[in-house]
Design goal:
With 388 residues, the protein is of the alpha/beta class. It has helices at residues 14-29, 38-49, 61-65, 72-78, 102-109, 113-132, 149-152, 316-319, and strands spanning 136-140, 160-164, 183-185, 211-213, 234-236, 257-259, 280-282, 304-306, 327-329, 350-352, 373-375. α1 (14-29) packs antiparallel against α2. The model is unreliable at 95-102 and 126-136 (pLDDT under 50).
Length: 388
């Protein structure tokens, strides 16, 4: 019995490769669930494609015994250590979301000249970094599509890594095993998810990310383990498709900067106000039509707030809690008058309220001695009071 490989001896066995692909697809979203890594699956596909072993050349065990060939499983056993997942842990309830077929990029582009050139360039640059003992590097506009685990092993002492506009579709889970990594920028790629953060490992063995930038990707959800990156201080998710943020965000107890511009967000998490360390909140271009004041009454450290392009006409009940704010942007909304409590923001230095429906600047704004920048372009101001 077994799969009839003998029927595909002169052509690629597409059905078997598709089976491996299904396993790989689940693996990408649950890499800590499996004891093997993606290189293990690629090894299987190579063995089937290139007819290296008699294991994949016949239809049944009897036919294989008639030939003195090489056993795939014998070689597999010898290379077993290369295929072990370093972040494996026993978990259950695997629920993989939809993922683009990045495996085909890796399989088809490994021998593509341009891909190999970019891959070699990346390795060469990494080697230079290690030789010079630098702690950061940037790789932009390299069409990598995918980063294999063998590449990541070269990032031993990297503290800052930028992979912008590299057409990345997935990030390997091993990226969290770069224990020195503090800054990761993967802007302008095609990522649809973030690999599971191995929070169950000792903190000395995993990355203590402080700044994570994932702007302009295709991320739609953030799983529970993502909010276990407790070292995170700055998070940028602008330009993705995240309509909802889990209440688990309150686990990010060191978060100072949160940027969610143009994500399609419809509401803020219920316990959002528990982010007591938050200083900068950027929410421009979302679909939040109202901002409940109770979500802000505990955010005592906010110094910058951007609620532009919301379609709102008032948020006075929020402003009364932002006594330390220095920069406020509510441009491109529907305000017909300046919000109440604005004159009580004694730390405010920069106010942007352009492209609203404001008709006049009230006299009390002349008492705002800390205000240095005021942008009222694109409003219906008829005249300016001389006393101002």
């Amino acid at each position: 019995g077994g799969f009839p490989f003998g029927n595909y001896i002169d052509e690629p066995c597409e059905l078997f490769i598709q089976f491996i692909y299904c396993i790989w697809k689940i693996l990408q979203f649950n890499q800590g669930f499996f004891e093997f890594n993606d290189e293990f699956l690629f090894y299987w596909i190579d063995a089937v494609t290139y007819n290296q072993y008699s294991t994949f050349m016949f239809n049944n065990t009897m036919e294989r015994k008639l030939v003195d060939g090489f056993s795939f499983f014998h070689d597999l056993d010898e290379k077993k250590s290369d295929f072990v997942c370093k972040i494996y842990t026993s978990k259950q309830n695997i629920e993989p979301p939809v993922l683009k077929s990045a495996i085909w990029y890796e399989l088809l582009l490994r021998n593509h000249l341009k891909y190999q050139k970019n891959r070699k360039k990346l390795i060469r640059n990494i080697s230079t970094v290690l030789v010079d003992d630098k702690l950061e590097n940037q790789f932009e506009n390299l069409k990598l599509y995918y980063i294999a685990s063998d590449l990541l092993s070269k990032f031993r002492n990297i503290a800052s890594l930028t992979l912008v506009n590299c057409d990345l579709i997935v990030l390997p889970s091993d990226i969290w095993l770069i224990s020195s990594l503090e800054y990761l920028n993967c802007d302008s790629n095609s990522l649809v998810s973030i690999p599971t953060y191995p929070h169950w490992l000792p903190s000395t063995e995993i990355a203590q990310i402080r700044t994570l930038s994932l702007k302009n990707n295709e991320i739609s959800t953030l799983d529970e383990d993502f909010f276990r990156i407790i070292s995170l201080e700055c998070l940028f998710l602008d330009g993705n498709m995240i309509s909802e943020i889990s209440n688990n965000i309150i686990n990010l107890k060191s978060l100072r900067v949160l940027s969610l511009k143009k994500t399609g967000l419809t509401n803020l998490p219920r316990f959002f106000g528990k982010l007591h360390t938050l200083e900068i909140l950027l929410l421009s271009g979302n679909k939040i039509l109202s901002i409940p004041s109770y979500q802000f009454h505990e955010l005592k450290k906010i110094i910058e707030l951007d609620v532009s392009s919301f379609g709102i006409s008032d948020f006075s009940d929020v402003l009364c809690y932002l006594m330390n704010i220095t920069k406020l942007n509510f441009s491109d909304n529907s305000f017909s008058e300046f919000p109440l409590y604005l004159n009580e923001l004694h730390c405010l230095t920069d106010l942007n309220c352009e492209n609203n429906n404001l008709h006049c600047i009230p006299k009390w704004m002349g008492t705002m001695k800390s205000l240095e920048v005021l942008n009222v372009n694109g409003n219906n101001l008829k005249s300016l009071d001389p006393s101002l």
